[in-house]
Amino acid sequence: MEDVFTAVAVGFEALGATAMMAGFLTALVLGARSLARGEGGRAAFQVLRTTLGSAILLGLEILVAADLIRTITSKPSLEDALILGLIVLIRTVLSISIQIEIEGTLPWRRALLRSGGQLIGDAVARDKAAAQASRASSGSAAPASQD
Prior knowledge:
This protein has helices spanning 2-36, 41-73, 78-103, 116-146. It is an all-alpha fold. The radius of gyration is 20 Å and the shape is elongated.
């Protein structure tokens, strides 16, 4: 049975790494699209930074779950519990730091709690809305210039 949980923990670790890599690629695409729409380098950098930070947050949350599964399902010792506690503490401090960087406020001061996945979803939704607005303005500008 321990082998099954070890495989599950490895799966979670792979999922966490995949989430970070996919988030990185998503951040690059959204940043490039922001530049292509003419929003400027500052806006593109902000999109890139926010989306990448959100992907890292999501990946860290999944990696913490993997560590918990691995530690709980193995033959736990006091040393294993202390190592897990230290890993979770380090990842929590990293998560809080990244979240403060992204949102500009302390996590416990936010009115609405948002996870890393929700922040990535917000970035994709903002990109989609900006692309639609860009197409709409291009579409309305084209008929005006033909008159």
